[in-house]
Write a structure and sequence with these properties.
This protein is of the alpha+beta class. 41% of the residues lie in helices and 21% in strands. The chain folds into two domains: 62 residues, 5' to 3' exonuclease, C-terminal subdomain (DNA polymerase, domain 1, Orthogonal Bundle), CATH 1.10.150; 143 residues, DNA polymerase, Y-family, little finger domain (Dna Ligase, domain 1), CATH 3.30.1490. A hairpin with a 5-residue loop joins strand 2 and strand 3. Helix 4 packs antiparallel against helix 5.
Length: 229
């Protein structure tokens, strides 16, 4: 079990998967899981009872993928130590949300998660992406190129917030996501500061101090007010 991975032989695959929940499948989020549950599919065993044609008829191309994965069949190549091209996080709501305060809170929490992952990997990025999904699954994306690479949650949040403000006011969304791409080494991040925002260095210093306290006392040692929305 090196690096937290377990190797399951082909002969053991069927027995291992049979009672596992469908949420184990990569790409099955809250919305897809709900659709599967509506069809009476909660485990791999439930999936195995469906004909391939019936899954495709109900779930489209996702149904074909589910049919193969239920049998432990996945033709995607596994590449060890592949370079990270982007870091992102998203959340799907049980219903459409238009409340700007609620959306703002989600943007901050997503920005913190992306920033935490960037810091853990000693990476920073130049491009911030905002992803939004309507209840009918239409996706809207907006991107913003920063003046310099960042790994700070505050910078990510402010860029994502600016992108959100340019999307139709009052729109309701089923999913919100924040991403960071065009990645570079952390040593290149947040060096020059923003001349148009003289308070940015102070906020960056406060965030670094918060990171140090959380590293010592846990992630809940300090919580920003906007994350409670």
């Amino acid at each position: 079990k090196p690096q937290g991975f377990s190797v399951i032989g082909r002969a053991e695959t069927a027995d291992f998967l049979r009672e596992q929940p469908v949420s184990l499948i990569w790409g099955v989020g809250q919305a897809t899981r709900a659709a599967l549950h509506d069809a009476g599919i909660r485990s791999f065993a439930d999936l195995l009872r469906w004909e391939r044609s019936d899954l495709v008829a109900r779930f489209g191309s996702m149904g074909d993928r589910l049919w193969h994965l239920a049998r432990g069949q996945d033709r995607r190549r596994v590449t060890a130590n592949a370079p990270v091209k982007s870091i992102s996080n998203e959340t799907t709501f049980g219903e459409d949300i238009a409340d700007p305060d609620l959306l703002d809170g989600h943007l901050w929490r997503l920005s913190e998660k992306v920033a935490d992952r960037a810091k853990a990997r000693a990476l920073a990025g130049r491009v911030v992406t905002l992803k939004l999904k309507h209840s009918d699954h239409r996706i809207t994306t907006r991107r913003h190129a920063l003046r310099e690479p960042t790994q700070l949650a505050d910078t990510l949040y402010r860029a994502a917030r600016g992108l959100m403000d340019h999307v139709t006011a009052g729109a309701a969304w089923r999913l919100v996501g924040v991403g960071l791409s065009d990645l570079v080494a952390a040593a290149e991040a947040d060096r020059a500061g923003d001349l148009l925002d003289p308070a940015a260095p102070r906020r960056a210093k406060a965030e670094r101090a918060t990171d140090a306290i959380r590293a010592r006392f846990g992630p809940d040692a300090i919580v920003k007010g906007r994350s409670l929305r």
